[in-house]
Write a structure and sequence with these properties.
The chain is about 45% helix and about 15% strand. With about 300 residues, the protein is α/β, with parallel strands linked by helices.
C-alpha cells in the first residue's frame, strides 16, 4: 500500500533551508511571461550541457545505439536541442507545480479527449502509457485538468522534494501510487481509474525481458505492462505532451487507444509496447530523456554499452 508524504514541521529544519531557497527561486522565476521562460530554459540547458558532461556522453551514446545511421553532425544538433529541453524541463516543472489552471490552459491545446470517453463507455480502466519526455510534469498537470487520474511515481530520497513533488502532481490529479505497489495499480484499474504509467526506462534485470528498442536488439524492458493489462483488463492509451517548436506553447495528443493489446506473454507485450514508445518518441525526439542510461542492463555475457 502506498503511503503518500505529508507536510510536517520537520521539513522546516535548517537542513532543508537550501532546498526551500531553490523552491522559492523557482516559484519566482515562473512568474515571468512564458516567452522569457522559454529563452531562460534554453539558456540553462546550454549551460547544463557544459556542466553535465557525463550525461551529455550518455545522450550521445544512446543516440548512437538507437540511430546508428545518424551522422555525427545530426547527432550533435539533436543533443544540443535535447539539453535545451533539459533546461526547459526544469522551468516546466515549476510551471506544472505553481501555475494556476487558467495559465496552464492558456498555453496548452489538447487533441483526442474523445478517446478517453470511448474507453470509459466500455467501463474499463485506462492504462495511460506515457514516456519520459522532459515535459513530463507539465503533461501530467494538463491531463489531470481534463481528466483527473492516478500517477505512478518513485518516492524522492529528499523528504521535502518528495512532499513537494506529490503536492504538485496532485494539484489536478486524484492520487499517486508507488511504482512498486502493483496491487494498488491493479485495484485502481479494475475500478475504472486512469493510471499514468511510463514503461520506457531501464528498471533493472528484475521483472524485465530483452526485446528490441530502436536500434538495440536486446533492450531490458519491464514486464509490468503485460501484467497490469492482463490482470486488470484495462485499455492502453498512449499520449504525448510536447512543446511546440514555434514557441506558442504546448499540445497534448491522446493517441488511438488499444483495447486488445497482444498479451500472449511478457516478451510479446514488451516488444509491442516498445514499438508504441518509439512512435511517441519520434513525435518529439529532442524532448525525450536521452540522458537516462536506457541500456545499462544487458544480457549475460554482453559487455557494457556505456
Amino acid at each position: 500500500m502506498t503511503h503518500l508524504p505529508r507536510f510536517s514541521r520537520a521539513l522546516l529544519h535548517p537542513r532543508y533551508w537550501l532546498t526551500w531557497l531553490g523552491i522559492g527561486l523557482l516559484w519566482l522565476i515562473v512568474l515571468l511571461p512564458y516567452p522569457l521562460l522559454r529563452r531562460l530554459g534554453r539558456l540553462l540547458g546550454r549551460i547544463a550541457m557544459r556542466v553535465m558532461k557525463r550525461r551529455a556522453r550518455i545522450a550521445y551514446r544512446n543516440l548512437e545505439l538507437c540511430f546508428p545511421e545518424m551522422d555525427e553532425k545530426a547527432r550533435h544538433e539533436l543533443v544540443v536541442k535535447n539539453f535545451e529541453s533539459v533546461g526547459m524541463g526544469l522551468i516546466e516543472t515549476g510551471m506544472a507545480w505553481f501555475w494556476p489552471d487558467w495559465r496552464i490552459q492558456r498555453w496548452f491545446s489538447v487533441r483526442g479527449l474523445e478517446n478517453i470517453k470511448a474507453i470509459q463507455a466500455q467501463k474499463r480502466g485506462i492504462l495511460l502509457l506515457g514516456v519520459h519526455f522532459l515535459t513530463l510534469e507539465l503533461g501530467a498537470r494538463i491531463f489531470g485538468i481534463n481528466e483527473p487520474g492516478i500517477g505512478v511515481y518513485r518516492p524522492n530520497d529528499n523528504p521535502l522534494l518528495d512532499w513537494l513533488q506529490t503536492w504538485g502532481r496532485m494539484r489536478s490529479n486524484k492520487s499517486m501510487i508507488d511504482r512498486k505497489d502493483l496491487k494498488g495499480m491493479i485495484k485502481a484499474l479494475k475500478k475504472g481509474e486512469v493510471i499514468w504509467y511510463a514503461p520506457d526506462h531501464d528498471y533493472g534485470p528484475r521483472a524485465s525481458v530483452f526485446v528490441p528498442f530502436f536500434g538495440v536488439e536486446q533492450a531490458a524492458t519491464t514486464t509490468g505492462t503485460w501484467m497490469l493489462a492482463k490482470t486488470s483488463g484495462a485499455a492502453i492509451l498512449p499520449f504525448v505532451p510536447r512543446r511546440k517548436a514555434d514557441g506558442t506553447g504546448y499540445e497534448m495528443i491522446l493517441m488511438e487507444p488499444e483495447f486488445d493489446p497482444p498479451l500472449d506473454n511478457a516478451e510479446t507485450t514488451a516488444a509491442w509496447m516498445n514499438k508504441v514508445v518509439e512512435r511517441c518518441v519520434m513525435m518529439a525526439p529532442d524532448q525525450y530523456m536521452w540522458l537516462h542510461r536506457r541500456f545499462k542492463t544487458r544480457p549475460e555475457g554482453v559487455p557494457s554499452r556505456y
